[in-house]
Amino acid sequence: MKLKYSIIISFLCSLIFGQNNSFEPGKLWKDTDGVHINAHGGGVIFVDGIYYWYGEFKTEGKGGNTALKGVSCYSSKDLYNWHNEGIVLKVEENLKSEITKGCIMERPKVVFNKKTGKYVMWFHLELKGKGYDAARAGVAMSDSPKGPFTYKKSYRPNKGVWPIGFKEEWKSASADQKNLKSWTPEWLTAIENGMLVRRDFEKGQMSRDMTIYVDDDEKAYLIHSSEENLTLHISELTDDYLDFTDKWTRMSPAGHNEAPAVFKKDGIYYMITSGCTGWDPNEARSFKSKSIWGPWESLGNPCIGKDAELTFHSQSTYIFPVLGKKDQFIFMADRWKPDNPIDGTYIWLPIKINKEKPILNWLDKWNLAYFREN
Ligand code: DGJ
Questions:
Q1: Are 2 and 103 found together in one domain?
Q2: Å from CA of 169 to ligand 1 middle
Q3: Which of 46, 56, 170, 361 has its CA 20 to 30 A from that of 117?
């Protein structure tokens, strides 16, 4: 259906049936049962005219950021009205399971693999009771976008493999400088020169905040905060999207980026990230590159307007194209509520590109007509 007609129909439905016909960033977003949507740190895919939104199912109180249920899914035909499809990847009651109840499952992203016909979910996994030390990437699979997803395994990516462009002299332990004080210029240089890549070479590289990006040639990449969140890694996935090819690179070494979200427009790759301040918001960053492998050019804060220096009190999560086409992109972010995580809200904004720089303007209320009118 043409965008214009779907906008008119959704407007009429909102009058007649009380349906939503707009986004109100930061407000409570009720699903079709009237319950605030519970899909945090999520991602959206578009399959046969239906959008699926996957996210972390949070609960009330201090422990509400741990996974007590699993990954939730909602479906929608118009992006405004969401039907709860339930928990599509469930935590397990078995204490030996890596995804036992009480582990941490963050930022789930689902992609469709055309070769295998499977839906593949990747997420940031932390093992129960180990804080954020495990730093693993978990993967699950399903035959349907509505799940159920079956948990496969988790990885410390790129075990025993050096990244592209890693200098010979950085590979040996003799490059290690002991007792460097954190955040000194010498320490930052040592990080840039791969001190932590070397440390984790045998064990595999850390993987915390992450996203998945599928390129036009169907190659997929895990983009993840690694090296104690100091450096992003871009790791190519195998053709079935379930493993790594051993081809990987580092991006913005010692740049301290979290929350990566990637999209491509007119042949240019763009990335929006945040700094690292736990659940507190900070200033977003943006980058562009002609290749997924870089070099990535830093473009500064993409946000404009009140509270732009705090990403409008939110943190990036994902970027997806409207109707699966590659001309209109929606930026998804989370306004975390660590004291009562279930109350976290969603900041969705249209992305504009101005002279090869992504721009996010704050809007109290907007709908898809914005893309036609701006
Ligand atoms: C910021 C990350 O972006 C979130 O996903 C979460 O891991 C918090 N840190 C935990 O403090």
A1: no
A2: 34
A3: 56
